Model the fold of this input.
Amino acid sequence: LMGFSQGGAVTMSVAQLLEASHPDVKIRLTMAGGGPYDICATYDKLIENDFTDYPCAIPMIIQGMDYGNDLNLDYSDYFLPRMVENLDEWINSKRYTMGDITQLIGSKKVSSIMTPDAMDKTSPKMTKLYNAMLDNSVIGKMMPRCPIYLFHSLDDTVVPYVNAYNIMEMLEMQDCNVMY
Done:
């Protein structure tokens, strides 16, 4: 199995699922790179740094959690008015590239699109969303027993390196066969 970025997290999830539900399927090697294995840590780091190379990723994460977990979020609790007003056109219409969306947003600062509540993970408005991010993270679940090769750039400004650190730490605690 192999995947990079979002595909890296999906690759780890597929390895977990196959080993847990289909032990007859033998995986020779799982290669995962640059994945958001820990969605909470990803969100935290983007908020802490107040920067992302792809500001469109944050609305995509929040909408994905909302839709996938049936949260019924009020986006005005998370996005500043200009982002809420343009969410359907800029993000959901699929008419624009990530570069186009970054230009339309006009900033790579997270605080330029997010409300103060969304920038504070201890805010009551973040509880449902944060729990959904926990549920959808690879971290905290059983790790695959197949050999794993992980790779990640220290300077990744899209999926923070903390993801690789956190999953590596978890794999080592579970005594997995991992190369990094």
Observations:
- The first strand starts at residue 2 and ends at 4.
